[in-house]
Automatic annotation (TrEMBL):
Residues 2-180 form the Bacterial bifunctional deaminase-reductase C-terminal domain. InterPro entries: DHFR-like_dom_sf, RibDG_C, Riboflavin_Biosynth_HTPR. It comes from Dactylosporangium vinaceum. This is Dihydrofolate reductase family protein.
Amino acid sequence: MRKIIYWVHSSVDGFIDGPGGEFDWPRMGQGLSAYSEGLNVHVDTLLYGRPVWQMMAGFWPKADEVSDHPHTAKFAPFWRATPKVVCSRTFEGDDWTSRVIRDDLPGQVGALKAEPGGDILLTGGSGLAAALTAHGLIDEYHIAVHPVVLGGGRPLFAEPKGRLNLVADGSQVVDEQVVVTRYRLAG
C-alpha cells in the first residue's frame, strides 16, 4: 500500500503561517532543498487541500520563469509532471488538477492509497492533514521547524480530536538552522 507523507514547515511556536497568513519566513537552502527532493524520489502523486492548492497553483506552473532559485528549478518540472489531487467540497478543478475529492474523504483517500504506485505527498496546510490524521491515513509526518516565532497563525495541527502519539524516526539539522524530524504513528 502507498504511504501518505505529510511534509510541512512550522515555526518554533507551532504555526504554519503567520497571523496574517504570511508564508514569507521559510528559507529553502541547499540542505532543505535536498531533503525535499529526497522525498520526491518515491512520490508519484501530490495531495492538497484547497487553500494550499490555490497557493501552489498560483506559483508553480511558471515558477522557474520568475525565480532562479535552484530548488525552484528542480521542483517546478516535477510539480508540473506529477498528478495532483485536491480535496475540497467547493473546488471544481482546473487545468493543473488531476482529480478532486469532494466527499467521503476517508473512503476516497483510502482508495487512493490502495491504488498501485509510489507514495503520496501531502504538502503544507493543516485542515486536510488534521482530517486525514483523524482517520489514521497519514503514515509519516516530516516537519521542518524553522528558527522563527510567528506569535500566531494557523497551528501545525488544526483542532486535534485527541492525543496523537508519534515516534521520532529520524531528525537532522539542515542549512545550519532548520530541524527536520520524521515521525510515524506510535504502535
